[in-house]
Design goal:
- 42% of the residues lie in helices and 12% in strands.
- It has four helices and seven strands.
- The longest helix has 68 residues.
- It has 260 residues and is an alpha+beta fold.
- The N and C termini lie far apart (101 Å).
- The chain has two domains: 70 residues; 177 residues, Muramoyl-pentapeptide Carboxypeptidase, domain 2, CATH 3.30.1380.10.
- Bound molecules: zinc ion (ZN).
Length: 260
């Protein structure tokens, strides 16, 4: 009985041998196909990168060509610019954007140093030169619209302290700065007087005070003079750009001047 069953089994296997071989080959084929598919899939992730970069190269070359063909945007020397759009290292301490000034009034809507482009470039050069001495600049005031000058005059109509708006200040032309020196940590250096201190101590030829303060004042003056700035005799912090006369008294408000 068992012998009969085995014989039947052998016959069954024999009869279906080709089926099994076919199924086995099919299995192997599918496995290989699938494994190739698996290889293809990651390739399909990596190849687009190559594809993109291959196509990006001519595109970007074209882009660069276009960029090169474009003329650089010319900034006119007279254009009012924000100093931070040229140099972010110059420290701002714009007193008239706070109440911490001799008029005890906030006169500027924002703390910004705006100057004529030609003046701003010179100031940035001063900052660059000072780096060699591990020093930098801190600005107290730059461009001041004439309407603000008029407000100042209303508060204190005395030309010992405030420029008469009838004549205007060089700050109104965007070609003057009030400035001091700072060390590498941004700490201001000792000067013979405070900013906007209206006394003989603020005079450029004041012989009093400490030797260090006078040396610092001279250091600032030398650095500014090297770029052509002209110091005001009665205020060690005030400097006019050499081209100040080229620019008119102006009343463009701060908010009309781009930040960058
Ligand atoms: Zn000034």
């Amino acid at each position: 009985m068992v012998g009969l069953q085995l014989t039947g089994l052998a016959k069954f296997v024999g009869d279906n041998m080709f089926k099994y071989i076919f199924i086995f080959i099919l299995f192997i084929f599918v496995t290989i196909a699938c494994s190739q598919q698996i290889v293809i899939v990651p390739n399909s992730f990596t190849s687009p990168t190559i594809y993109r970069s291959e196509t990006a190269i001519p595109e970007s070359n074209e882009y660069h060509k276009q960029q090169q063909n474009q003329q650089p945007i010319e900034v006119q020397a007279s254009q009012l610019v924000d100093i931070e759009s040229i140099n972010k290292k110059i420290i701002l301490d714009i007193k008239y954007a706070t109440k911490n000034n001799f008029l005890k009034q906030k006169l500027y809507p924002e703390s910004r140093c705006i100057l004529r482009y030609s003046t701003a470039k010179k100031l940035v050069q001063v900052q660059e030169n000072l780096k060699q001495k591990k020093l930098g600049l801190k600005v107290y005031d730059c461009y001041r619209p004439i309407s603000v000058q008029k407000k100042m005059w209303q508060v204190l109509p005395d030309d010992k302290y405030v420029a008469n708006p009838a004549r205007g200040s060089r700050h109104n032309r965007g070609a003057a700065v009030d400035i001091t020196l700072v060390d590498s940590k941004g700490q201001k250096l000792e000067m013979p007087s405070q900013f906007d201190e209206f006394s003989v101590k603020s005079h450029r030829n004041y012989k009093g005070g400490s030797l260090t303060s006078r040396k610092n004042r001279q250091l600032l003056e030398d650095a500014m003079k090297k770029q052509g700035f002209i110091g005001l005799a009665t205020e060690w912090w005030h400097f006019d750009a050499p081209e100040w006369e080229s620019y008119p008294i102006t009343d463009i408000p701060f908010e009309k001047i781009p930040t960058s």
